[in-house]
Amino acid sequence: MNVKGIHHLSAMTGNAPGNFKFYTEVLGMRLIKKTVNQDDTTAYHLFYGDERGNPGTELTFFDFPGIGPTRKGASSISGTSLRVASDAALEYWLVRFKEHGVKHSAITEHANRNVIFFEDPEGQQLALVSDETNSGVAGGIPWDQSPVPVEFGITGLGPVKLTVRKPESTIAALRLLGFSEKSRIPAIVAGQEDIIVMQVGEGGSGAEVQVEPRSDLSAAAVGKGGVHHVAFRIEDKQELLAWIDILNKAGLPNSGFVERYYFRSLYFREPNGILFELATDGPGFVTDEPFETLGEALALPPFLEPKRASIEANLRPLDTSRSV
């Protein structure tokens, strides 16, 4: 019964073609699955990750054209970080961001790591985090056909920041999942409490959540540039079923077992209203596509395949084919 770290993080876009261009051509991540939101099949669900979308490397997006921008605030996943191997990689990214006109900070130290803060074209708050001195959960393997050299490529998800009005409630939910307090770092905003750094499993960048208390904020509203939910890694279906029982006994309403085909899931909201998911490490993304052509065609799980014609008819065209 061990949560192993961060599994994936799902965000929102209103512009699938622009999103695809930025995350593959600028950030150099691989689109490892082009599918649909299983709860609303009129929307794409795009999965970016390392060479095969290993657990802990997946940043995903739901595409809802015309959606309004995120209103920042409390009860939100307010910061997403992506891991790179070294401080030298950060130096490379400073040049690359300047070349591509990406809004970004200088290299700075945050939570005892060197980072670059930046934004995607829709304003999502992101950071590149150096693993120069990191230990703990291993990163993934950057795709060798990315426009970014492998040695500088993104290796997975790093610490996730949660902004809440009542930190003790969120921390209690994280402790239920096996997280423990690692450290505290000074508040970013004067007059607010320190940020509580929580970690789980082997620890390190891939297993860290930063809880930011903000009594001065009203509730956020998620739109484009915002994050929908964060998922944490568990081993398999057997553990997932056991977690359902644990959540029920703790009085936390949850979705129960959900079959996502590429992994199995359950969902629940922690007391401040942030959506958490527990997701299994497998079966993975090469279940229905060859490794060589991951993400190039629309993939549908078997339970949606009979509806392919109507699903495709309700999607905007999105060319994700790759020239050899």
Automatic annotation (TrEMBL):
UniProt entry keywords in alphabetical sequence:
Dioxygenase, Oxidoreductase
UniProt keyword Oxidoreductase present: yes
Family matches, as InterPro entries: Extradiol_RC_dioxygenase, Glyas_Bleomycin-R_OHBP_Dase, Glyas_Fos-R_dOase_dom, VOC_core
A GO MF term: dioxygenase activity
CDD domains recorded for this chain?
PcpA_C_like (cd08347)
Q: Where is the VOC domain?
A: 5-131, 156-281
What is the designated name of this protein?
A: Ring-cleaving dioxygenase
Protein source organism: Paenibacillus agricola
